[in-house]
Fold:
Amino acid sequence: MNDVRHPDAEDTFIEGPLYASAKRIYPQRVQGTYRQIKWALLAFCLAVYYFLPFLRWDRGPNLPNQAVLLDLENRRFYFFFIEIWPQEAYYFTGLLIIAAMTLFLLNSIAGRVWCGYLCWQTVWTDLFMAVERHIEGDRRDRIKLDAAPWSVSKAVKKVSKHFIWLMIAWWTGGAWVLYFSDAPTLVNDLIFFKAPFTAYMWIGILTFTTYIFAGIMREQVCLYMCPWPRIQAALTDDKALNVTYLYDRGEPRTSVKEAARLKSAGEAAGDCVDCYQCVNVCPTGVDIREGSQLGCIQCGLCIDACDTVMKKLGREPRLIAYDTDEAIQMRLKGETPVYKFFRARTFIYLALISMVGGAMIYQLATRMTAGINVIHDRTPLFTPLADGSIRNAYTIRLLNKRPDVRDFAVTIDGVVNATIEVIGVPATADWRPVVTVGPDRTREVRVLVSAPRASLTDKSMPIVFRASDLFAGEVVTEDDHFHGPGN
Amino acid sequence: MAANLERDAVTGTSTTGHEWDGIKELNTPLPRWWVNIFYACIIWSIGYWVVYPAWPLISSHTTGMFGYSSRADVVTELAALKARRGQNAAALEKVSVEEIAKNPALAEVAKAVGRAAFGDNCAPCHGSGGVGGKGYPSLVDDEWLWGGDVATIQTTLKHGIRWTNDPDTRIGDMMAFGKTGTLKKEEIDTVVDYVLSLAKLPGGEKFDEAKAKDLFATNCASCHGDDAKGNKDLGAPSLVDQIWLYGSRRADLIETVTNGRAGVMPAWAGRLDDVTIKSLAVYVNSLGGGK
Structure:
């Protein structure tokens, strides 16, 4: 590579190589409030991710007992007491809307707090960095180690680091596939190489992406791959809490001795001693003192680092803090800043979330456990019979979303004196064919509807198909048409 | 790097030494990781040459260590498919067509096989969905020239209709009464008007009822029956219902009586295997017209 650069090259934007090697970042260990919160959330998120598939949930004899299961083979999604059929995939749309709105709400409250604490990229990168720190030491040791020539001890450290990373990545992929099949069975199958190839393939893919994203790429994912920083920049305002360097208090930066001298001379001196601790601990390598920026994921680790320094110097903590741009402006004007949680923006997001959430809960609570789909035969649209009456044929699919066998009486309405016949199903005495549908199944039947010519007032007449559960009384209907030659 | 590398003054990047009209090309290599993956792919491909068929020889090719062949894959997959179909076919082969129709699981298989076979073999004449057309009977209505239960449909499929190569084929003739001179023009008109009145069809003209009844009894009743309701043993259609294979206008009927009708359906035994014919019978029966 080319390391020799013209001295002016740094300041030119267009000229110079288009490809720049990523600057290696060696985040330093830090302790404090936000680090504690991050550890707690990390433990919680990973525990949910790795162990949720093993949680059991009894649904009766005909259904799987895994609390969260994406059963692609049988096209069902189980989430605790909820079972979703493919026809109900719109619930996922609702969930996605709620997720997006929650992200926007969090953004209006505290900026990119999602990025800093909950995003999987952050969580796994944090975990990988902890492993790295444990094996290779803190920032200085790692810089030294990387600069040192290859030796046995360096090789041992590097190999064990990458090995543990790969193991975590492998477990991450392993946990992923457990969401798609019965977890205990699949674990057993995986161990004895009896699992389907797709399971191993997905574990391989997830191992690779986890290792690459959390181990190698890290902040590059946030800086170059993730769309959220770009969207967020367009959504944010000066009233949201952001990790902020209080430049009104910190500037001008001076050393402790110089500050004392300046103050005694009656000149202004800021609290920032320019110690670069905030930069050293930053997982994306930004300088927060340059203001809010694309690289900042709002994790608050620089707050912890700065607080430690301020404490040692006997100065007020929170020179870097969760604060708003507006507050700084007000302080500069000598006013007392107030943080407003309830603003038009937060209200709108809260309202949207509760609207969509409410609609989904209402849908879920009132949804039918049966369903009927009717498809009219395309050819022929109608068939004249020997006695001159007209017959239409339909394909009907009955859906039974309950875990027991159910009997549905199929009836029609809308055409006078029309009779119904279900092929392969004997009619009862009152001309109501009864179709039996298995537990959590659908059944497709062919249905013939015949009507005398006198009943046909139009070439196409509306007709209603009704399936009534003989035991529970649930009734579902579907509209279709009855075609004929006209009157 | 060579010592005499020329460097670009602005960027500090070395040049490739190429120059066009004073413009020098900067040597900006691809990212290392990209180049490494590229080299790794080349090395990987050598492994492919060793284990898989790769290089063409004069009359054959290198077969590779694994002995892989996509042709062999196809053969294996086809054999597996055949074995799977064989299970279903064996089940359908053992039992009679009536038993298949009664057993929901077997009927399901038969209908699937039948649907595919119908599209390939029957739809060209009988139309998709069995809707039929002029001269080609509808398979979805409730009128059957030769009978509509599964066993009868099976027989029709096997031996065909007026298919002279098959000794067991179904034979029934609608005579050309006009062409052969059996009936005169006015007599045909009379008997046609009479039939139109029997079927309560419009378009009929006035006729001599006594003469018509006499003509019908002499010429038509032997096949179509005294009550004109037809005879399935002879493939003679009912003349009192609303279904008319060759049209129900007066002119259509006159043409039928004058020239006769003799539609042909091929015998499918020998062309289609037994299981397919059984499946077709069950499928056609389920279309809606079956008895």
